[in-house]
Design a protein that fits this description.
Elements (H helix, E strand, L loop, with lengths): L7 E6 L3 H13 L5 E4 L16 E2 L10 H20 L3 E2 L3 E5 L5 H13 L6 E3 L1 H7 L7 E5 L3 E3 L1 H14 L3 E3 L4 E7 L2 E6 L4 E9 L5 H7 L7 E12 L10 E4 L11 E4 L5 E4 L3 E2 L13 H9 L1 H22 L1 H9 L10 E13 L10 E5 L2 E6 L8 H15 L1
Length: 404
């Protein structure tokens, strides 16, 4: 494929849900723009957007006033309305966060206060009797009930966004891995592995697991580094699925960005348990045996990884143990749904999370957007990035439109 015939107004790098939502928003605001999305995989939504549990988050966990907190509530409402217009199924099945013993009650109370500050709809502090009403097979001495939390298929949402882009005159090109980004006067020249060369007035990079690398292509120097964490799911057999009505979650450890093993009923009426969180040996490695020497060596050379590992090595070892020993994983599941038997549990799918780490070993918790000239980089968009995709797209385009 050769050079494009004339400059496009906007090129979006990355055909995940955030990149597609941003390109769609650009065409809503500027229907006369030429908009191009470049995705390196043969299909869109190939990585984080297509390997998640499909939860429509209501905003319980996030620090009040943070980007995440502001984006999740509005994003959930917008996405539910959008899916209704497009005929994409959603279900507000609700989420129950359960405390197993008294040691977890202070964290549950803190979570309750966060949820109230974030205006989570219908949030309710519940005791054992109410827990049994909501989830008859769940354990727990207290909990938080979020009836506004829901489920959806984000791959369907991504494809709907792509359809909107094409209907608005934009293009979505797959199989185009960006290899260079350079500014030339009032344009940004992008070159892909296929030989495609694009001149764009503005560029937005939503590269997910490759976000830090794409940022460096345009000369952005950052101490942040993407460290991939693989999460493996198990699934309940069809006979065992009635044990779970909706979503059953543990009380999270606020020091750690992962929520722990939990139960999720999907929009396709499966029930998943997980994910755990273990270091992936490849940024796009969904199997335990997947290894990319470049990816792994970058992690091992990054001081921030070792500083993080020194703080959480016990947690990391337990996660690895549960990852390789099914019986240990099942025992973790039984803490929350005691009637689950080993025979009820079968191997499910896996996902890889792009976890941004600072050089001091701290986790980058909030969304991170950086600009360099005419190039805008979404460097961190973890959960609830999919729920918030329409809002993130609007926020990005607020910045880009000022420079257009």
């Amino acid at each position: 494929m050769s050079e494009t015939s004339s400059p496009v107004n906007l090129t979006v790098i990355g055909g995940g849900i955030v990149g597609l939502a941003t390109a769609r928003e650009a065409l809503i605001r500027h229907p006369d723009w030429r908009v191009l999305v470049l995705e390196k995989e043969p299909q869109i939504a190939a990585h984080q957007s297509g390997h998640n549990s499909g939860v429509l988050h209501a905003g319980i966990y996030y620090t009040p006033g943070s980007f995440k907190a502001r984006a999740s509530g509005q994003g959930r409402r917008l996405l539910i309305d959008y899916c209704a217009q497009k005929g994409i199924a959603t279900r507000l099945c609700g989420k129950l966060i359960v405390a197993l013993d008294e040691s977890e009650l202070p964290r549950l109370d803190d979570l309750h206060q966060r949820g109230l500050a974030n205006d989570v709809p219908g949030l309710e502090r519940v005791g054992p009797e109410r827990i049994r009403e909501i989830e008859p097979n769940a354990a727990g001495i207290a909990g938080l009930w979020s009836p506004g939390t829901g489920i959806v298929d984000y791959v369907q949402v991504a494809h709907a966004y792509a359809d909107d882009i094409r209907a608005g005159g934009g293009e979505v090109l797959t199989g185009q891995r960006v290899e260079s980004i350079r500014e030339a006067g009032e344009e940004v020249i992008i070159t892909a592995n296929t030989g495609l060369e694009v001149a764009a007035r503005q560029v937005i990079a939503c590269a997910g697991l490759q976000g830090d690398r794409v940022a460096r292509l345009s000369g952005v120097e950052t101490s942040m580094h993407i460290v991939p964490f693989r999460g493996d799911y198990y699934a309940l057999t069809p006979e065992a699925r009635p044990l779970v009505n909706g979503l059953i979650y543990p009380v999270p450890d606020p020091r750690f960005p992962f929520l722990g093993v939990h139960f999720t009923r999907t929009i396709h009426d499966e029930v998943w348990a997980g994910p755990n969180a273990v270091l992936a040996f490849a940024r796009e490695g969904y199997r335990r045996t997947d290894l990319n020497l470049r990816d792994l060596s970058e992690v091992l050379r990054f001081p921030g990884f070792w500083r993080m590992a020194s703080k959480f090595w016990r947690t990391g070892l337990m996660e690895m143990w549960r990852d390789y020993v099914k019986s240990a994983y099942v025992r973790e599941m039984q803490k929350y749904v005691p009637d689950v038997k080993p025979s009820d549990v079968v191997t499910g799918h896996s996902g890889v999370r792009a976890q941004a780490l600072n050089a001091d070993g701290s986790f980058v918790d909030d969304f991170m957007i950086a600009q360099r000239g005419r190039v805008t980089h979404v460097q961190n968009a973890p959960s609830p990035g999919a729920t918030s995709s329409m809002v993130i797209g609007r926020m990005i385009m607020d910045r880009v439109s000022e420079l257009a």
